[in-house]
């Protein structure tokens, strides 16, 4: 391409301060350095992590100016020195939790999906190779990176470890969801919990990640999938994942609104499931909800999986002796998927219809209306609003 090795001037949505409307303006994007890739973003979407960062809810998210965004899909524009697994024109999905393939973490097989160099790090705001940024605004002011990706831009530069090459025939709009939300939720059901046919599940928080857990449990044949949310509209969204009225595990089978019952949620769930569910998934980022998720699992074998982001310094109220009842509590990063190794196969499974992605895209808007997309998520009206660039 004529732009290879040159600075590209393009649009980006820049965050200049917490809670301030994003400014869609011209920025300069440097060419990729060693082991980096510059990509043309075609689709990007917004998740609650972007929303939390935009609000500046933790110290890690207060680097400004900054280009947010971490769910996207696009094509390779150019590659830096040493990149051999991708070339210009390849369809790709950026991932916030990278995989270098060489460190002791990446070589750990099934022990972890973290990477020693490129794991998710909210404090990181520059590139790995030289500790510098690849973005500047029209005044030459450096613009910081976000979660290894910064996808709210026509073009972005990422480390090759944070980019996955996918099937050239894959529908890129839907593949955007694999960058975070769907992979995180569904992977937690498939990989972290390894839900089996006939087992029971409770999902706390029915946003995109929560409903991805529901979809993962559905595909594994869970006998009961209990959705928990204080928004009554989420009952309808959860039921959309049901095909028919047969007694098979399609979507949520039961819904609980904590505001509509007069007992703690965990007591209600234990009553519904003969002592508790096999697995619970906390997708709300709320400490009280997390405790309910832990207590609603069955003693002896129950497992609570943490997916929600908890930006506050508040600690979990948990007595060590409660763990002697056999319940466990773990966290799942990116659904325990190893991004570069396992996402290409997952993308093909989605293309084959194993996983239903259409239901997650509730809105579509042009990129310049990104602030409207943020408001839709803030108001709880969207799961994923897909922005096309």
UniProtKB/TrEMBL annotation:
Transmembrane segments: none annotated. Homodimer. The keyword Zinc applies. SUPFAM superfamilies: GroES-like, NAD(P)-binding Rossmann-fold domains. Its cofactor is Zn(2+). The keyword Oxidoreductase applies. GO terms for cellular component: cytosol. Residues 34-166 form the Alcohol dehydrogenase-like N-terminal domain. It holds the Pfam family ADH_N. GO terms for molecular function: S-(hydroxymethyl)glutathione dehydrogenase [NAD(P)+] activity; zinc ion binding. Keywords: Metal-binding, NAD, Oxidoreductase, Zinc. Residues 208-336 form the Alcohol dehydrogenase-like C-terminal domain. InterPro entries: ADH-like_C (IPR013149), ADH-like_N (IPR013154), ADH_Zn_CS (IPR002328), GroES-like_sf (IPR011032), NAD(P)-bd_dom_sf (IPR036291). Belongs to the zinc-containing alcohol dehydrogenase family. Class-III subfamily. This is Alcohol dehydrogenase. One of its GO terms (biological process) is formaldehyde catabolic process. It comes from the Eukaryota.
């Amino acid at each position: 391409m004529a732009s290879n090795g040159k600075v590209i001037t393009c649009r980006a949505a820049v965050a200049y301060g917490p809670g301030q409307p994003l400014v869609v303006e011209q920025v300069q994007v440097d060419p990729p350095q060693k082991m980096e890739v510059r990509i043309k973003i075609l689709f990007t979407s917004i998740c609650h992590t972007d929303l939390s960062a935009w609000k500046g809810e933790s110290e890690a998210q207060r680097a400004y100016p900054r280009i947010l965004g971490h769910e996207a899909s696009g094509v390779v524009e150019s590659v830096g020195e040493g990149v051999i697994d991708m070339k210009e024109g390849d369809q790709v999905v950026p991932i916030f939790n990278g995989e270098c393939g060489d460190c002791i973490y990446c070589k750990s097989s099934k022990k972890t999906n973290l990477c020693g160099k490129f794991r998710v790090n909210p404090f990181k705001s520059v590139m790995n190779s030289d500790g510098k940024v690849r973005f500047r605004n029209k005044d030459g002011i450096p613009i910081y990176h976000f979660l290894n990706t910064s996808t709210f831009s026509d073009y972005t530069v990422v480390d090759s470890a944070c980019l996955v090459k996918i099937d050239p025939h894959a529908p890129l709009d839907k593949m955007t969801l694999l960058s975070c939300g769907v992979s995180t939720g569904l992977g937690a059901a498939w990989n972290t919990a390894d839900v089996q046919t006939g087992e029971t599940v409770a999902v706390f928080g029915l946003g995109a990640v929560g409903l991805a857990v529901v979809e993962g449990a559905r595909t594994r044949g869970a006998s009961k999938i209990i959705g928990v949310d204080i928004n009554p509209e989420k009952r309808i969204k959860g039921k959309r994942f049901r095909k028919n009225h047969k007694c098979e595990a399609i979507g949520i089978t039961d819904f609980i609104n904590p505001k509509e019952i007069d007992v703690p949620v965990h007591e209600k769930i234990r009553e519904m499931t003969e002592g508790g569910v096999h697995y619970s998934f906390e997708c709300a980022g709320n400490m009280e909800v997390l405790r309910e998720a832990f207590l609603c699992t069955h003693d002896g074998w129950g497992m609570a999986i943490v997916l929600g982001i908890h930006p506050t310094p508040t600690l979990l109220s948990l007595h060590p002796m409660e763990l002697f009842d056999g319940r466990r509590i773990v966290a799942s990063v990116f659904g325990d998927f190893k991004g570069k190794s396992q996402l290409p196969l997952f993308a093909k499974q989605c293309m084959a219809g194993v996983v239903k992605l259409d239901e997650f895209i509730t809105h579509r808007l042009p990129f310049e209306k990104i602030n409207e997309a943020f408001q839709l998520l803030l108001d709880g009206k969207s799961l994923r609003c897909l922005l096309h660039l």
